[in-house]
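ESCALATION

Customer reports they have been waiting on this structure for their group meeting. Please prioritize. Original submission:
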Amino acid sequence: MTEVPELTNGEFADYIREGIVLIDFFAEWCMPCMMMSPVVEDLSEELSGKAKFGKLNIDDAQCIANKYNVSSIPTFIVFKDGEPIEKVTGAMNQDDLSELVQKHLN
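Update from on-call: job pushed to the front of the queue and completed.
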């Protein structure tokens, strides 16, 4: 199983620079975030080689969360070549999350 990396402030910009990347903005005290973690892991495996996935702990990276106006969690932002192209807040099922990413893959 592919482990979705938890990014640091220093890694974030490089990680989202190329291609389609879904970032899961979360916190360890957030129950819906914890429920979404296995969904994100499964999806990263399903879309391996097509899109990248990463997690960002908003408690450790508040400046990045602020930059992208993340005020509620979980929040998922799809980036394309470093630019945010879609943002969704709240827990969702794997099909919806998959659709969020896949519609940007072409």
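Sent to customer with the following note: The mean pLDDT is 95.
Escalation resolved.
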